[in-house]
Design goal:
alpha/beta, Arc Repressor Mutant, subunit A, Rossmann fold, 3-stranded antiparallel beta sheet, about 40% helix, binds S-adenosylmethionine, S-adenosyl-L-methionine, transferase
């Protein structure tokens, strides 16, 4: 091949992919050492080193790297949090995402460690980060899930529910796989009288009850612990909401959707926000790539193809199903609304 041979394709996206973890690593390093709580006011690298006793060269490199990645601002040699860092990376704030990002990073990358060895049927290397090999520990993640709900997901989801024409007529809703319950709490708060039930693994019950109490909603919101495949979901609901929670039904989606159908009142609404994969299960990549490690590391979950949930809803007997794709913080997801 001549050195002057024109190249039509560009390797840019390959370089970008290899550079991307640098940004993640420096953000995670900053979270782990509690950097961001010291940067609410502008401070020099030297002053930070004096204050915290950190290694000067590594401190300066980290600060400059974070400024390069727009996580910090740098002006006249002083570093301070960007608006984003201030809102999401300063511990103690209700929107603090540090622990959630660390957990999420472990979930999305840990299970990929040793992939070449696994493909070759070799023994995977023993590292600290072997990732998920069993079921996700949702109770350990509950606080982070609550913060991440407050940090944009409630704000994104609420208009979807408020936009349902029946919303004002709802008397009782179920948040299926509702985690620590922040979404259900927000939906109930937005309604004058609707009551809510958060259904999830009993392990997240204590945290959910605490949030319900903190929001003064113990008379309107309850937590029901159980496994949605084997336990009763209760009954008499006008709305069943499920976001990112149906993935754990294995091959039994039809059974779960039928169970929801039976738990709903006549005219009730089943609203589901889930990934809807297209292009033979390869797109949208924002939905596919973060789930690879989880799928490799554990056989607990499945992904849904676009239309799969809508089809299951029709087969369960719902009289109509409307579907659309909505943009979320995590990428495009499908919003399927079925009416009984
Ligand atoms: C990704 S989180 C989503 C939480 C919440 N719906 C949201 O959108 O923030 C998935 C939730 O499903 C719950 N879950 C998974 N399998 C379940 C099961 N078999 N029965 C009840 N809840 C389950 C988990 O405990 C977790 O809280």
């Amino acid at each position: 091949m001549s050195i002057l041979e024109p190249i039509e394709e560009s390797p840019r996206s390959l370089y970008q992919a290899v550079y991307a973890p640098v940004k993640a690593e420096i953000i995670l390093a900053g979270i782990k050492v509690g950097l961001f709580s010291h940067l609410q006011e502008p401070i020099s690298a030297a002053a930070l080193v004096d204050k915290l006793g950190w290694e000067p060269r590594a401190t300066e490199i980290l600060l400059n790297g974070l400024a390069s990645a727009d996580i910090l601002l740098k002006q006249n040699g002083l570093f301070s949090n960007s608006l984003e860092a201030s809102r999401f990376l300063v511990p103690g704030r209700p929107t603090y995402l540090g622990d959630h990002l660390l957990n999420t990073h472990r979930m999305v990358t840990g299970g990929l460690v040793g992939l070449p060895e696994r493909l070759r049927n070799d023994t995977p290397p023993q590292t600290q980060q072997t990732g998920q090999s069993g079921p996700t520990d949702w109770s350990a993640m509950a606080e982070g899930m609550a913060n991440s709900a407050r940090a944009g997901r409630v704000q994104m989801v609420l208009p979807l529910v408020l936009g349902l024409p029946e919303f004002t007529t709802f008397r009782k809703m179920l948040d299926l796989g509702g985690g620590p319950g922040l979404l259900c709490i927000a939906m109930v708060q937005a309604h004058p009288s609707m009551r809510g039930v958060v259904f999830d693994n009993p392990a997240v019950g204590d945290q959910a009850r605490q949030y319900i109490q903190e929001h003064g909603l113990t008379d309107r919101v309850t937590f029901l612990g159980g496994d949605y495949m084997s336990d009763s979901l209760g009954s008499g609901y006008d709305l069943v909401w499920a976001s990112a929670s149906l993935n754990y039904c294995g091959e039994r989606l039809d059974e779960l959707v039928a169970k929801v159908y039976n738990a709903l009142e006549h005219g009730g609404v089943f609203a589901v926000l889930q990934e809807g994969l297209t292009h033979e299960g390869t797109k949208p990549s924002e939905m596919v790539l973060p789930m690879l490690a989880w799928r490799l590391g554990s056989d607990e979950g499945i992904n849904f193809a676009q239309g799969q949930i809508a089809q299951a809803m029709l087969e369960a007997g719902f009289r109509s199903v409307r579907s659309r794709t909505v943009q979320t913080l995590h990428g495009p997801m499908d919003f399927d609304v079925a009416r009984k």
